[in-house]
Amino acid sequence: MTADEQALVDAEAAFNRAMISNDPAKIRECISADWILVTPERGPIPGAAVLDAIASGTLVHDTMTKQSRVVRALGDTGFVTGRGHNTGWFRGDPISADEWITDIYRRVEGRWLCELTHLTPAAAPDEKA
């Protein structure tokens, strides 16, 4: 693994920790101002809407884990794809997800910031993928 790829793995871990902190300021440290979340339920969601939902308590994350499968750094762009699991609450109801996640990063002033997160439900465990 290259130093840039390790830095992406570290950025991904920091992003996960920020999300379960439920602190929009900590999350903002890990994402670009234009971050987009793409979900199967709603398609592209502006990052500001996600942060607003977290700030209001509408969306709460209790756990978030990810096993990175593919990590690539291509100049000042990079991506991490892996299998993720998370739990929490949405509008007071419990949520749980098992999904494939791809985070696309851009290096800004020496730091990797997430530009886009794309979620795909994992139908069943696939140890070969």
From TrEMBL:
It holds the Pfam family DUF4440. Residues 9-113 form the DUF4440 domain. Gene3D superfamilies: 3.10.450.50. It comes from the Bacteria. This is Ketosteroid isomerase-like protein. It comes from Rhizobium aquaticum.
